[in-house]
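A note from the maintainers: we've had questions about how concatenated examples are separated. There is no special marker in the raw files; a new sequence line simply starts the next protein. For clarity in this README we add a label.
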Amino acid sequence: MKKIIIAIAFLIALAACRNEDQNLTADVEIPVSAEEIKLKTIEEFVNTTGTAFPRGEIELKSRIAATYFLEKNPRTGKMWKMGDKVKAGELIARLEDEEYVNSVQMETNQLNLELMETELRKQESLYEKGGVTLKELKTAGINYENAKTTVINSRLQLEKTKIVAPIDGVIVDLPYYTQGTQIETGITVVKIMDYQTMYMDVQLPEKYISVIEPGQIVKLTNYTIPEDTIIGNVTQLSPAIDADTRSFKGIVSIDNNDYLLRPGMFVKADIVTNQMDSVIVIPKNIILSRQRGKTVFVVDRGIAVERIIETGLENMTEIEVTSGLSKNERIVTGGFETLGNRSKVKIIK
């Protein structure tokens, strides 16, 4: 009998120890990360990719056989080189050929124009006084116009001795020729691209044809500039669907004022199709899928409370919460995987 009593007492003590251990376990605070809910903006995107092209590019070739002389960049005082920004009208190189210049007879043609103009004014004065016929006046006018055309043509001929930038842009190719080298007609002298504004062709899935519209903002990134986002706009959309790819074509104009994008770069584009301002936005990866719906954990006086939520707009990383959460509540963003409803937690971050 005494042994039975001792055994019962032992079992009671063991049970008490187990209860004490369970209470200790229940009091353990699970470390979690949490952040205060604040209102922010969320954007819904259509993701696509494409290649960036310059708005304008031009390749200037020699139009006469002549002696080549590269000019200096007026902003640096040094010879032009690849990567230099150039303005329309700036002289890149000279092509010298004295025989060619003499054949144009610019000075002679200019003097003849002045004579024809003087003769025309004389004939106009005489005609008003009845001193010449209308035919003589018209002949003087024709001679003047012919002389003027000859001077214009001479100027155009002389322009062939100058390699002048026709557009603002950046020198992207500048073949090397020794100063004073004789070059032939049709030789490339310089290539200029204007890529302060760029464009890209994109192919968009058929399902977005009623979602994407001209004028929508496009956010562009490239792996070489991970910290910068460049802004563009949808400018054109084709109304036709490609039967083979089930996609339609769009054109995006890119504002590249800082020259961050370079011609030919592969670009990731996010077309903003919807936007909500001043709403509750949370990371998508903290949402748990339960049988009763989507849930997250909110910290309330050291207790993690599971909360059912409803959602709205979403993108790759974030989602709008339309009900179930309030501004300034603290939501668990890390360590939620092991939580149960009303678990004790300790915020470590």
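[label: protein 2]
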Amino acid sequence: MARTPRSVDLTQVTEWNEGKLARKDDYLAAEEPLEIRIGEHPLSVTMRTPGHDLELAAGFLLTEGLVQQRGQILALESASQDDAGRKGNAVEATLSPESAPDFDKMRRHFFAASSCGICGKASIESVRSRLLRAPNPDFRVDPDLLTRLPETLRLAQDVFERTGGLHAAALFDAQGQLLVVREDIGRHNAVDKVIGWGFLNDRVPLKDCLLLVSGRGGFEIVQKAIVAGIPVVACVSAPSSLAVQLARELQLTLVGFVRGKRFVIYAGDDRVAT
């Protein structure tokens, strides 16, 4: 029997407030490992917030270069984890023969932690060497509309509202319509879930969409956005130096510090229409 993913855990805490101690219930963002498999072969373990696991796996397979087209994933399902046949913390993918990796010759294996994204790549150059193409040059976003999107995202963050401990990623169209939002303990997982949603719904490349992330914009997020064909990435906090460098190299628009009526464009200012 499949268990229902739980994004929030309830715990008891002691709160100190103006010199007084009190016991109270508090909500925590759930964090559990998810193993992604190709057939019976383990590929990756990521610490994530349960929920939308198939989207997470699909987004990971796309953004890490194991598949390029929706039809290359023949099956994607939660895998049994124990003798009782309960399904939960594993996703098993069946890929088309031309996409299935040779595990005897694979030089890299993946491990993702909630704080740092994918670790263990041979080098940043191995990411740059992939045939990543510049995204849609004709996409435009209105500056005033852009400043309103963080509030839309905040109002859509159900789990964050209760726990205060999750990152979020969302896709918007050029008119500011919210298409999808996903939350996760790891910002890279939230992005993979959003991209996986698009991939499983045959919407990749996401050439007419803007990606907004609730935290900082790191190299990993920019790389994933470019793979998915997203032309604009906006973040509430700062981008990293490598994220800016990659965005400029591949002509992605990267916007940071989207707060109030202000933001900073680090790359691709031509897509921000005035």
